[in-house]
User: Fold this.
Amino acid sequence: MQFILKAFQEIEGLGAASGLVYQQPRLYLISDYSSYLYCYELEQGQLNKIALFADSREFIPKPEKFDFEAIVEYGNALLLLGSGSTPRRNSLVRHDLSDSQADQGSTVATRQYDLSALYEKLRQTAQLNDDELNIEGAIYHQSQWLLFQRGNGAQAQNGIFIVQGNLVSDLSLSGNDVRPDDTIQSNNIVQAVEFVPLQLPVVNHVPSGFTDAILVGETIYFLASAENSSSTYQDGEVLGSYIGCMDLNTKTIQDMQLISTCHKFEGLTLYQQTPHKLEFLLCEDNDTEQLSTTIYKLTLAQD
Assistant:
């Protein structure tokens, strides 16, 4: 897998970026210790903050943070998913992009859901301990959800949860009809859950784990990082990051390539596609409180 990786854009005012979505001419980004959604205007070089809650904060201490690790387009909305690694991290937030105030910091276009019941079903399906669930990426395709489990817990179990059914029971947002705590009942809404375990590379005896994934045609492109920690809660030394691809239908990994030995890339979005190459934008979680982040462009040659 031939690749070119280079810095694309420096963004001030945002740190610990954990996911991103490109919608020309802007980037939407999340941070794993913030409760804002960020909108970066590429042409103007301007960063806007969108409060997800009435009391949104730039920096939330680790025990209290929502730990949003996955962001995915869903119709004309963005869904932000907590990792599920602690009870505090079981939230899903839906932000409606069609609202006229959606990019102006208004909370009117935002609704929060509780994923506790679903996440418990995921743990039971994969036989994970309470502290081992760690959802880092999400794909929605043909009424099916693919949730990517990062295996940086004690069992080091990477894999994909295949979820049939809706993650959100009520997708309408209108006027003042905004309730902060719509609860998902997994037995009513989620029809079936399957777990597909997958083996990822090991770096210096440390297994790598999924950090994001997107769908391009019939191919899943994903990121994986090796971090010297056997905890879904504590950070560790970064040993490397990979780009990989797998078949959507068989979930068979087709190729993986080490792209960095020092960066922990946690967000992946498609930037441009031509017959001969794919260009992705990547964001990095530097595990610091510094409000500055670098967006990288990764180019892959296509045969």
Q: What stands out?
A: The chain has a mean pLDDT of 87. The CA atoms of residues 146 and 205 lie 28 Å apart. Residues 116-126 form the longest helix (11 residues). The helical segments are 116-126, 186-189.
